[in-house]
From TrEMBL, chain A:
It is an enzyme of class 1 (oxidoreductase). It comes from Desulfuromonas versatilis. The keyword Ribonucleoprotein does not apply. Pfam families: Molybdopterin, Molydop_binding. SUPFAM superfamilies: ADC-like, Formate dehydrogenase/DMSO reductase, domains 1-3. It is found in: Cell membrane. This is nitrate reductase (quinone). The keyword Metal-binding applies. InterPro entries: Asp_de-COase-like_dom_sf (IPR009010), MopB_CT_Nitrate-R-NarG-like (IPR037943), MoPterin_dinucl-bd_dom (IPR006657), Mopterin_OxRdtase (IPR006656), Mopterin_OxRdtase_4Fe-4S_dom (IPR006963), MopterinOxRdtase_cofactor_BS (IPR027467), NarG (IPR006468), Prok_molybdopt-oxidoreductase (IPR050123). Its EC number is 1.7.5.1. Its cofactor is Mo-bis(molybdopterin guanine dinucleotide); [4Fe-4S] cluster. It catalyses: nitrate + a quinol = a quinone + nitrite + H2O. The gene is narG.
TrEMBL record, chain B:
It is found in: Cell envelope. InterPro entries: 4Fe4S_Fe-S-bd, Nitr_red_bet_C, Nitr_red_bet_C_sf, NO3_Rdtase_bsu. This is Nitrate reductase subunit beta. It comes from the Bacteria. The lineage of its organism: Bacteria, Pseudomonadati, Thermodesulfobacteriota, Desulfuromonadia, Desulfuromonadales. The keyword Ligase does not apply. Residues 7-36, 174-206, 208-237 form the 4Fe-4S ferredoxin-type domain. Its cofactor is [3Fe-4S] cluster; [4Fe-4S] cluster. Its main location: other. It comes from Desulfuromonas versatilis. Keywords: 3Fe-4S, 4Fe-4S, Electron transport, Iron, Iron-sulfur, Metal-binding, Repeat, Transport.
Length: 1207, 495
């Protein structure tokens, strides 16, 4: 064969330079992508001729311990296509202002010198206000200048503060971990103003409520390298290979290392191909599978074999030995509240005795009060909040009885709810009696209640199943078949393999779980069902074990100093942090579209009571009144106006102002805004959106946003149905449209939110600014860096907000020259003594108790705003940080010396006769954070552990001893990714290259979980949970489509089929980012297609790539179909999250208007029992607790679009 | 012996997640230009599926690769005489429809649309004509069983299965797919080189990389036809053909090719193989089912002193020999025998080898309930994909070749399970090794290479000896002094 060319003939091979030249570049800059993907990958951006050419992954992660695969390369198809955006025609290059508003503004400015007066002239004229609102989203942008748009925004800000109150300003930016400083710039600006920042983790339905329920923790998970330590991996609701692309290799590699991989997924997902067992359980029914698995594990491993490892683990680390009081109701006993130590004579005098709980000590046969429970956390004497099994009174050792089966006083018949069949069963449970101040009370261990709940008979009387084959008895392997479609034999085998692996490996079984589960209405129950199997088998707090929930890039590693800067708490606190699900449910008026009767069917309760009854909006109002959830605006008037009124009424000091406020509320002379959200004075007025797509990809009920927030065209046809169901809320017959005066979007690409905003500000891309990025998928911290300066007129987010702050300060010279006092309402907060505020639910507004701020109602704090110095404060790290220290999760420590070091070694600013560490540039702020965070400063870690030692009373500081001299600067992160240090702000341990796994700190160092018992909770002791029947792990069926109100007004048009509408995360975008990118569109189908099963498609005459209309009451989507046997019948996918802006035709069904996006077909629906607060782990934290934006229980109709699509 | 060094590659399909990061790494660097938009030197396909260009495997349609005619090997498209005859009309050439019409969107309409009474949208337009179009094809159109009844069902490999097997493949009990990334195979017996009427295509002597000389190419497109993998592409704007260059500029700088570097599934391995070029033709003449083994056979042992002596005689540098000894590809293909060539029956002797994927056990459906096979791990007997299908892809239909690989992959998992958990007995692990024909040490080595290796161990680039290469034509010092001066000039275009 003659084609081999040996001779290096300089002439014939010279052309090879052609490709060499392309490859040569001038510099390589490390950056990453600030997108909510959890990747947090280190990238090298290649710059040639001053232009970003392409990117490739960095491969220089420091290795972890021997025997773990390395983290390289990390970075996916989406990330590698980012460079396309920089110079694309989608780029926002200049500030844009809608033409209608431009004309109005320039005309008003011609009449009014003062910008605030000009703005007032526009928005106070109803016709002019409507004219630009109706133009939203309909083209007509004009190029503006920074000066002009900054002036409008500042004028609107000042106008709103003066006219309605600062809490009518709202900011939304999601997922700070993806670019911490860019987030912090906006939130700092907003909090210095007194505006509200909206949460995102719960709104995105990323928050797994089961995590705070069980662990008192927002979320903590293993880094992906730890999957490799696992020996049995169950993947469910998570398409790891698609959505965790950079880390998927650990799953494949774990398999070659001897792990068994099982994947529960209704469709053959890309991850299913890595399964030994692909378990095609029906969509949303994973909970039934796990409940049956738990039935088998409890039967065979806990009752049968009494597996020592499992039993020992449960005693030490879970609430299973704790005693629950049984209450008699309707002739049967039901599980009630945790037995309180204070009810026993022996312990009645203890500090916080009602928040210390009891177990039975097996050797003595006596109830005992172990350390580590809630009361120990908040008592005066420190150092007893730990998991040593010792009596809190005398330190004597306790050997708790898991079960009272061998030592009971009696077996009582206890009622258990079976929501699947809508019935109650009675089962024998062994009890002991406690002699309490209230009399003789029967108590059972959580363990025995679990056995009964799961139907493990143990020879006891009652309605227990006889065998695994009992089909009508809840939670047997046979029972689950009708929900999951999976054979009982597989469930039994799975359970045995799972538990046997855990026993042999001491807990190396793990669940990887994601949005595919978490977006269901009853996701908290499904999660719990899985977590139960982990806890039963001793898998939590173990390398290779535990629940790995990857939904959203929630882990912001250097959280303590960052939070201080982000919330402007170095100047003023508390901040106004609002949970977005409640905010949008109320303000975008989605509550107006649901009926109580339907909601009751969606969330069946064990019993009807004042706790469970009523319309969700009324639950929401109660949650605000009781201080369970925040709500902004707070009152029916400006909060600074309220202060003025208090002062006018004679209030001399801040306490008097608070007292006056409480009195006004109690006498109903002042109302919470949430009680009358449609009154014009209670509307949000100005919204700034940055780093997110708030009007499309995260706008659940998008069409309602368009209608009620924006006042522009909408494709919803849903009728309002709430009028007859609501009680506490003021019902206004006319739902307001166009609540917002001004919508500002900060963006680098013209996405749907930008398109629908009044003002679009051009921002720097992730290759044009400095910032920080961290994720839970790995244990490193990365920089974003400017490979090139911001292109065209773009500015970094930090600089944009700095500029706005300056403009506001300028206008404040005239309009708000003096400091302004503002009263801030804040909810009862997790990780504070408010966890003991409301052990029972009482409503002061109904006279059931006194209104006491911070106890029975929200707390109120009077603060002072300095608008004239807003800019100065923005760029200065304020003195309150030095004075108060920093912290997280109820832990805080002093930073005085570090603060002073910053003054000595870093840039400073001076004003008003004082000098402060500078936050002028994002990089300055990054260095302040890195210098103060325990995760990047070893001395700070050491100090934080010392503070934790005081609380816990056990040695911990040794965990930071070896890294005390580590100091990390921004420039170090440029050199090489740096691994995070051990820190008490997090529960995993990383020393010596150990893979991070959640709760290892708790298991190995006996630091309590932040829950009622300090242990992991199987049993959720809360009045509301008991009332809703979710106190024990349970199964609630998927809501029936007939109650979802998706088709009240919609009639089937043409040949249509109804399908359950799912929006999983897909392959060609990260949320909406990249989905409009030419690379991704080319490699997919040039659109965001609608996936359905081939036989379902055949029924309605749809062939692959046909145009279809997908519709229900909420709106309509027009796109092309993918017909695939990969999907089972009955479900449809529209991968999260399309833009309406790219290739979307018009919809004949809805008046030939432009089709919508995936959120055009849904509406937010809140689960009321997730609104509770003020007790144990059920207390509010921003992005930590509260109802989530569940959206998966939605149905649609789909039909073929006839003829050619119209554009 | 005529010993040659070839940079060869392995794709571990069990690890592939089908993410296409590789494709974009390549696109960004090499084919993001007018006329090259539709080219994907690296693409990833879903199997079963028809791929890109559609049904490329069907040589009855495309006439790529070689066939045996008596005792001769002949290009399937015809000998040199035949190709010249087709210069102006080549019916087996893929058309734009077989690839796809590249498209984009009128993105700037979003910013520039005048005020109206509805929302603007960016319409799809052709990158060829600039006109609005309906998008009906793409380079990854059948991704993850998209349009399974149209595409997966018409996979040439599926079509060869029995009617029953075909039906079952799309029922939940056997439903399955996997991904097949493809680049140029840099074949030993390359069809494209043989087909080029201009002599513009050559195989580099030092590393076996196959290149289209952009000065010499006259755009006859015979290479497009001659390559059975359809991995050369005609640039419709430049009038030249182009193909994967295995990122020789990156390799010359000691860097992995972009698609290898960016492979986030860590599936890609690269290293030197030594082979005897005198045996190319004899090897390519073997029976279909023997080709995979024959190809393995012609790879030489770099640890064999005789091979080393011969290699030195043939001008293989010591450093290259050392790289061949460290080559992961040698281990996968030759020592462990777990990587197989793609469609060896095309007889081009491709130098890209694939480790086939492990897939979930099958299930049985009964009245709406699925019962999975009760095997602990994936098994050979109850795997979801018919072995026949895989044998058609990787072994010229020889099922034994494929089974042998699976037995080895399964033995690795059993041994590691035995060591890491202990619920499989040592006797079971020993039995699995015996069936697989592997030692415990080999199993350990396979495991380490599969799971633990860093990029420098996965991708072992031989020193490209640029100093010596440059010296053949220019004094390297002068080269250094002058390099980069002058204006970049693209090769002359034909039109």
């Amino acid at each position: 064969m003659s084609w081999i060319k040996d001779i290096v003939d300089p002439k014939s091979r010279k052309w090879e330079e052609f490709y060499r030249n392309r490859n040569q570049c001038d510099k390589v800059v490390r950056s990453t992508h600030g997108v909510n993907c959890t990747g947090g990958c280190s990238w090298n951006v290649h710059v040639k001729d001053g232009i970003v050419g392409w990117e490739l992954q960095a491969t220089d992660y420091p290795p972890l311990e021997e025997g773990l695969p390395p983290y390289e390369p990390r970075g996916c198809q989406r990330g590698i296509s980012f460079s396309w955006y920089l110079y694309s025609p989608l780029r926002v290059k200049y500030p844009y202002l809608r033409g209608v508003l431009t004309d109005l503004w320039r005309a008003a400015k011609a009449r009014h010198n003062d910008p605030v007066a000009a703005w007032a002239a526009i928005v106070e004229d109803e016709a002019s206000r409507k004219s630009y609102q109706r133009a939203r989203g309909k083209g007509g942008f004009r190029r503006s200048s920074w000066e002009e748009v900054e002036e409008i925004i500042a004028a609107s800000t000042v106008y709103t503060i003066k006219k309605y109150g600062a809490d009518r300003l709202v900011g939304f930016s999601p997922i700070p971990a993806m670019s911490m400083l860019s987030f912090a710039g906006g939130s700092r600006f907003m909090q210095l103003l007194g505006g509200a920042n909206l949460s995102f983790y719960d709104w995105y339905c990323d928050l797994p409520n089961a995590s705070p329920e069980i662990w008192g923790e927002q979320t903590d998970v293993a880094e992906s390298a730890d999957w490799y330590n696992s020996k049995y991996i169950a993947v469910m609701g998570s398409n790891v290979n698609v959505t965790r692309t950079p880390d998927a290799h650990f799953l494949a590699e774990a398999r070659h290392n001897g792990a068994k991989v099982t994947v529960l997924s209704p469709d053959f997902s890309v991850t299913s191909k890595h399964a030994d067992w692909w378990i095609p359980a029906h969509a949303g029914q994973d909970g039934a599978f796990w409940m049956a698995v738990n039935h088998v594990i409890l039967s065979e491993f806990h009752h049968g074999a009494k597996t020592p490892y499992f039993m020992d683990y449960l005693k030490r680390y879970s609430d299973t030995p704790f005693l629950i009081q049984l209450e008699q109701r309707d002739g049967a006993y039901t599980p009630g509240r945790l037995a309180q130590a204070g009810s026993l004579e022996r312990y009645a005098g203890e500090d916080n005795a009602d928040f210390k709980y009891l177990v039975f000590d097996a050797p003595s046969g006596q109830p005992r009060m172990p350390l580590g429970t809630l009361g120990f956390r908040w008592q005066k004497k420190k150092g007893e909040w730990n998991l040593q099994m010792q009596d809190g009174q005398d330190g004597s050792p306790i050997d708790p009885a898991l079960s009272l089966l061998e030592s009971h006083d009696e077996v009582l018949q206890v009622a258990f709810d079976d929501f699947a069949d809508g019935k109650t069963v009675r089962r024998g449970v062994p009890v002991r009696y406690l002699e309490t101040a209230q009399g003789r009370v029967p108590v059972a261990t959580v363990f025995d209640l679990l056995m009964a709940q799961f139907g493990v008979g143990r020879g006891l009387q009652g309605d227990y199943p006889k065998s695994y084959d009992a089909e009508t008895s809840a939670y047997t392997p046979a029972w689950q078949e009708k929900y999951t479609g999976i054979d009982r034999a597989n469930v039994v085998q799975f359970a045995r393999e799972w538990a046997a692996t855990a026993e042999k490996t001491q807990g190396k079984c793990s669940i990887i779980i994601g949005a595919g589960i978490n977006h269901w209405y009853h996701a908290n129950l499904t999660y719990r069902a899985g977590i139960v199997s982990l806890m039963l088998c001793g898998c939590v707090g173990k390398n290779g074990g535990g629940l790995n929930h990857y939904v959203g890039q929630e882990k912001l590693a250097p959280v303590a100093p960052w939070a201080t800067i982000m919330g402007a708490m170095d100047w003023v606190k508390p901040p106004r942090f609002q949970n977005a699900p409640s905010y949008h449910y109320v303000h975008s008026d989605q509550w107006r579209y649901e009926r109580t009767a339907d909601e009751v069917k969606i969330n069946p309760a064990a019993r009807r009571s004042p706790i469970t009854e009523g319309h969700t909006i009324d639950h929401q109002i109660r949650a605000v009144r009781n201080g369970w959830l925040p709500f902004y605006p707070q009152f029916d008037r400006s909060p600074s106006e309220a202060v003025k009124q208090a002062v006018a009424a004679g209030a001399k000091d801040n306490q008097a102002i608070v007292d006056w406020t409480v009195k006004q509320l109690a006498e109903k002379k002042m109302k919470f805004a949430v009680e009358d959200p449609d009154a014009p004075e209670n509307w949000p007025r100005m919204w700034i959106i940055w780093r997110g797509n708030a009007l499309m990809s995260s706008a659940k009920g998008h069409e309602y946003f368009l209608k009620h927030y924006l006042g522009t065209h909408t494709n919803t046809i849903a009728p309002e149905t709430a009028a007859d169901s609501v009680k506490d809320v003021v019902w206004r017959d006319q739902g307001p449209e166009g609540k917002l005066d001004l919508v500002v979007d900060i963006n680098f690409r013209m996405d749907t939110s930008a398109l629908y905003s009044d003002i679009v500000l051009p921002t720097a891309t992730w290759y044009e600014k400095d910032d920080l990025n961290s994720t839970d998928m790995h244990s490193f911290i990365h920089p974003l860096q400017a490979a090139v300066p911001p292109c065209w007129e773009a500015r970094s987010d930090w600089d944009i907000f700095k500029g706005l702050a300056k403009k506001v300060s300028e206008l404040a010279e005239t309009h708000l020259p003096e400091p302004v006092r503002d009263i801030v309402a804040v909810p009862l907060a997790h990780d504070t003594p408010a966890e003991m505020a409301q052990p029972t639910i009482k409503d002061w507004s109904k006279g059931e108790c006194e209104p006491i701020p911070g106890k029975t109602m929200p707390n109120f704090v009077v603060v002072e705003r300095d608008y004239k110095n807003l800019y100065n404060r923005f760029i200065s790290f304020g003195p309150a940080a030095r004075q108060n220290g920093i912290g997280a999760h109820g832990l805080s420590w002093s930073i005085e010396d570090f603060y002073d070091e910053l003054l000595q070694t870093r840039p400073t600013v001076q004003w008003g006769g004082q000098e402060y560490p500078a936050l002028s540039e994002a990089k300055d702020a990054a260095n302040v954070i890195l210098h103060l965070a325990p995760e990047t400063n070893g001395e700070a870690a050491y100090r934080a552990y010392q503070a934790e030692e005081v609380k816990v009373g056990l040695p911990l500081a040794d965990l930071a001893e070896k890294s005390r001299n580590v100091r990390t600067r921004f420039s170090d992160l440029d050199r090489q990714p740096r691994r995070l240090l051990n820190s008490p702000c997090w529960s995993g341990l990383t020393e010596n290259g150990r893979a991070y796994s959640a709760y290892c700190l708790n298991v190995e160092r006996l630091v309590p979980w932040r829950t009622l018992t300090g242990r992991q909770h199987f049993y959720l002791d809360h009045e509301s949970y008991i009332a809703f029947g979710e106190h024990l792990p349970t199964y609630k069926p998927k809501p029936d489509p007939s109650v979802l109100q998706d088709f009240v007004a919609t009639r089937e048009q043409g040949k249509s089929i109804m399908l359950n509408y799912l929006t999983p995360h897909g392959k060609w975008s990260i949320h909406s980012t990249y989905g409009d990118n030419h690379r991704m569109l080319t490699l997919s189908r040039g659109c965001h297609p609608f996936w359905l099963n081939d036989r379902d498609a055949a029924e309605i005459g749809v062939a692959d790539n046909d145009w279809v209309e997908v519709y229900n009451d909420h709106g309509v989507v027009v796109t092309r179909a993918i017909v695939s046997s990969r999907l089972p019948r009955g479900i449809a996918f529209l991968y999260h999250s399309p833009e309406r802006t790219v290739g979307v035709p018009k919809s004949p069904l809805r008046g030939n208007r432009r089709g919508g996006g995936h959120n055009s077909l849904n509406r937010i629906r809140l689960k009321p029992n997730l609104m509770v607060g003020g007790y144990g782990q059920f207390t509010y934290g921003w992005n930590y607790w509260g109802p989530t934006g569940a959206n998966r229980d939605t149905f649609i109709l789909v039909r073929r679009l006839d003829g050619e699509p119209q554009w | 012996m005529n010993i040659r060094a070839q940079i060869a590659t392995v794709f571990h399909l069990d690890k592939c997640i089908g993410c296409h990061t590789c494709s974009i790494a390549c696109k960004n660097l090499w084919t993001d230009r007018k006329g090259a938009e539709y080219m994907w030197w690296n693409n990833v396909e879903t199997k079963p599926g028809t791929g890109y260009p559609t049904r490329w495997e069907d040589q009855e349609q495309y006439r790529g690769g070689w066939e045996r005619v008596g005792s001769q090997l002949r290009l399937k498209m015809g000998g040199r005489g035949g190709t010249l005859g087709k210069i102006f009309h080549n019916p087996s050439l893929p058309t734009m429809d077989d690839y796809y019409e590249p498209f984009t969107f009128k993105y700037d309409d979003l910013t520039n649309a005048p005020a109206g009474d509805d929302q603007p949208t960016a319409r799809p337009v052709s990158m060829v004509s600039g006109k609005p179009m309906k998008i009906e094809a793409g380079p990854n159109w059948d991704d993850d069983l998209s349009g399974s009844t149209v595409y997966a069902a018409n996979d040439p490999g599926v079509v060869q299965l029995s009617e029953e097997e075909q039906q079952q493949l799309f029922a939940i009990e056997k439903m399955v797919f996997f991904h097949l990334p493809r680049i140029c195979n840099h074949c030993l017996n390359a069809g494209c080189v043989a087909a080029c009427p201009s002599g513009a295509i050559y195989k580099r002597g030092e590393d076996g990389i196959v290149l289209v000389d952009q000065d010499k190419c006259r755009g006859w497109r015979m290479c497009v036809s001659g390559c059975p993998y359809k991995k050369t592409y005609y640039g419709w704007s430049t009038g030249k053909s182009e193909k994967c260059i295995l990122c020789y500029p990156r390799q010359e700088a000691g860097e992995a090719p972009a698609c290898f570097h960016s492979c986030v599934g860590r599936i890609r391995y690269l290293g030197v193989l030594l082979y005897d070029a005198d045996r190319i033709e004899a090897t390519a003449m073997q029976e279909d089912g023997e080709l995979a083994a024959a190809q393995r056979e012609m790879i030489l042992d770099p640890f064999d002193p005789q091979v080393q002596r011969e290699a030195a005689r043939c001008g293989i540098a010591e450093e290259v020999l050392a790289a061949a000894q460290a080559s992961p590809v040698y281990k996968f293909v030759k020592q462990w025998g777990i990587a197989l060539p793609l469609h060896p029956e095309f007889r081009t002797l491709p130098m890209l080898f694939y480790v086939p994927p492990l897939l979930p056990v099958l299930s049985v459906e009964s009245q709406g309930t699925q019962k999975l096979a009760d095997d602990f791990f994936t098994t050979l007997e109850r795997a979801r994909l018919p072995i026949r299908y895989l044998a058609g892809l990787f072994a010229g239909g020889n099922e034994e070749e494929v089974k042998a690989v699976y037995r080895r992959l399964i033995a690795v998992r059993i041994q590691r399970r035995q060591q890491g958990v202990g619920d499989q007995s040592e006797a079971e692990a020993a039995r699995a090794r015996e069936i697989a024909g592997l030692s415990a040490e080999q199993v350990e080595a396979i495991y380490r290479m599969t799971a633990l290796t860093s990029i420098k161990e996965r991708i072992v680039i031989p020193p490209m000896l640029r100093d010596r290469a440059v010296e053949a034509g220019t004094d390297p010092e002068a080269y250094r002094q002058e390099m980069g001066f002058g204006r970049r000039q693209a090769p002359k275009r034909r039109w």
